From TrEMBL:
Lineage summary: Bacteria, Bacillati, Actinomycetota, Actinomycetes, Micrococcales
Domain NmrA-like intervals: 6-136
Entries under InterPro entries matching the protein: Ergot_Alk_Oxidoreductase, NAD(P)-bd_dom_sf, NmrA-like
A Pfam cross-reference name: NmrA
Protein name (Swiss-Prot/TrEMBL): NmrA-like domain-containing protein
Superkingdom in the source lineage: Bacteria
Amino acid sequence: MRPPGTVLVTGGTGTLGRALVAGLRARGESPRVLSRTHGAGLTTADLGTGAGLDAALDGVDTVFHLATSNRDDLDISRALLDAARAQARPPHLVYVSIVGVEQIPLPYYRGKLAVERAIEGSGLPFAILRATQFHPFIERLFSAQRALPVLLAPDFSAQPIAVDEVAGRLIGLADAGTLGRAADIGGPEVLSLHQLALAYRAARGGRRPVARVALPGATARAYRAGHNLVPGPPFGRQRFGEYLASRFGIHGA
């Protein structure tokens, strides 16, 4: 385990960030949670402008960079990298990315890949972890269709993973002082979106038909080719059905 030190978490109020902050606090750490807003337990700074970053990073040994703009993450990462380099003792940066960012031509993925490249060229000690989609993301794919008469399932597969497991792996990388890109991680099962939609429908007690959809374009082809999946033994343990059972209070699932 890494020696006790000051930790900064960007994106600490997001889905993954909350799990990571909870994991750190559960073992007695008091991470600084970066936010543009003021509030209890928050360290105020702006990744977009760089305002407040020098103070936020002062004395920090480890930065978990989880913040995302949902547009171009490079824009909100440059100031962080500059401020981290300017510290008397630059921190170890741990960054979370997504499996398939090199092969899947989504603009958001290209932004993630650009951040990876910027981190690699920053001169900072770093670890990069790529993970598959989180269980809540897969759930939202279907919950967003609540007004449709059918539940649409694109014709490719996914390997969802528990948020807590990704958070735990990131903490483990920091503890070990891992440098460079770590092995990609994914959930314990690869299922078609059709299978995942059926599981979601069952958990919600729905009756809508589930329709497979063949999506056109390069992005869909990359997903069908499995570039969003992690080959080899799985890292994650919680299955999507188990997540749904916990999420919706299903007993005996």
